[in-house]
């Protein structure tokens, strides 16, 4: 009687220019370790999509662009709620060796800036992945705070970095309403509830209170930068934390960035020519797809032939002014 093993016979199996010795019988072929299984598996990997192969490095890319904070419902800026899912998808990508952030932001709301920074660092710790930041035109104020979430920061020689400070502004309309015969009527419960009201004369005590708040926020910003950059910082506090900003080479010499480099060249030099750099884009709903996210010159363009609402127009002008501060 012939045993099951004796019924098996060797034969060659070929795929392309690869050949393997297979042990099998009829339609129930079985592959033995002796028959070159490791070689077979290795060769089959060549036919898998690159993103599924463990030997192909992957560095997902997330773009963080625009002013930070909720501008208006039609023109949302960068917020944690808006970028959280995109960041989570990037850090969860299979075979990721690192996560790259491309930042182009003149800053904005300090709370949203810090929350985005913290979420990036939390994900990096959970997934044990390094974060590489690439600055495009500008990473200033809150934009630089987010950039500090990177283990390394790279920039272009013409990039602008810094502006580590706090700013606030308003207008005074009290003389205008007098000229046009408008009487201001304001009722409050609380001595300082109407602090810095633009239709009332400026109160020095109110200004002092505002500046005290700004100093507290500034101190938090300074602490975050020092904790993130550590002994890489080369300038003194009287240089780095005055709100001044610098171009790329000077930023590197001050320790605000680690080097000059672009995304593609830097990742290829570090992870090899075959590195994949998939862009992780935010999911778009129907409303966002119809309205779009616009900035810069497009911010004043009509939506479906209708001019922007007054509050949207004002926010667009404010956004334009923030970018213009850095010559952009």
Short description:
The chain is of the alpha/beta class. The protein is built from 11 helices and 9 strands. It has helices spanning 37-44, 80-91, 110-127, 142-147, 174-179, 204-229, 237-240, 248-253, 263-271, 286-291, 310-324; strands at 9-15, 18-24, 61-65, 99-105, 131-140, 152-155, 160-162, 245-247, 259-260.
Radius of gyration based on Cα positions: 29 Å
Instruction: Count every helix, treating DSSP H or I runs of 4 or more residues as helices.
Output: 11
In the CATH hierarchy, the third-tier topology of the largest domain is known as 2-enoyl-CoA Hydratase, Chain A, domain 1
Question: How many domains make up the coordinates?
Answer: 3
Helix/strand-derived class?
alpha/beta
Explain what this protein looks like in three dimensions.
It is a single chain. The strands form 2 sheets. Strands 3, 4, 5, 6, 7, 8 and 9 form a 7-stranded mixed beta sheet that branches. A two-stranded antiparallel sheet has the order 1-2. Helix 2 packs parallel to helix 3 (110-127). The protein has helices spanning 37-44, 80-91, 110-127, 142-147, 174-179, 204-229, 237-240, 248-253, 263-271, 286-291, 310-324, and strands spanning 9-15, 18-24, 61-65, 99-105, 131-140, 152-155, 160-162, 245-247, 259-260. The longest helix is centred in the middle third of the chain and has 26 residues, at 204-229. The termini are far apart. It has 11 helices and 9 strands. 35% of the residues lie in helices and 15% in strands. The protein has 3 domains: 9-47, no CATH class; 55-163 and 244-287, 2-enoyl-CoA Hydratase, Chain A, domain 1 (Alpha-Beta Complex); 168-232, no CATH class. The chain has 328 residues and is α/β, with parallel strands linked by helices.
């Amino acid at each position: 009687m012939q045993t099951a093993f004796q019924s098996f016979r060797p034969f060659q199996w070929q795929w392309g220019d690869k050949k393997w010795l297979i042990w099998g019988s009829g339609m129930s072929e079985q592959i033995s370790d002796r028959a070159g299984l490791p070689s077979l598996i290795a060769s089959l990997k060549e036919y898998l999509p690159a993103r599924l192969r463990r030997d192909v490095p992957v560095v997902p890319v997330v773009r963080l662009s625009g002013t930070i904070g909720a501008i208006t419902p039609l023109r949302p800026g960068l917020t944690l709620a808006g970028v959280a899912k995109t960041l989570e998808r990037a850090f969860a990508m299979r075979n990721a060796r690192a996560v790259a952030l491309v930042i182009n932001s003149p800053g904005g709301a300090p709370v949203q800036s810090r929350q985005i920074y913290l979420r990036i660092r939390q994900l990096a710790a959970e997934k044990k992945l390094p974060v590489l930041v690439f600055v495009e035109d500008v990473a200033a104020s809150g934009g630089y705070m987010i950039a500090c979430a990177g283990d390394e920061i790279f920039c272009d020689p013409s990039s602008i970095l810094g502006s580590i400070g706090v700013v606030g502004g308003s207008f005074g309309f009290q003389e205008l309403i007098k000229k046009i015969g408008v009487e201001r009527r304001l009722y409050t419960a609380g001595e300082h509830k109407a602090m810095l009201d633009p239709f009332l004369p400026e109160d020095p005590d109110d200004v002092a209170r505002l500046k005290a708040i700004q100093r507290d926020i500034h101190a938090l910003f300074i602490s975050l930068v020092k904790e993130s950059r550590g002994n890489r910082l080369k300038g003194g506090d009287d240089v780095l934390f005055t709100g001044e900003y610098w171009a790329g080479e000077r930023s590197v010499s001050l320790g605000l960035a680690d080097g000059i480099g672009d995304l593609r060249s830097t990742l290829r030099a570090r992870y090899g020519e075959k590195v994949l750099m998939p862009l992780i884009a935010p999911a778009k709903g129907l409303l966002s797809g119809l309205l779009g996210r616009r900035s810069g010159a497009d911010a004043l363009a009509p939506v479906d032939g209708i001019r922007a609402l007054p509050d949207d127009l004002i926010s667009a002008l404010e956004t334009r002014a923030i970018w213009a501060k850095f010559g952009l």
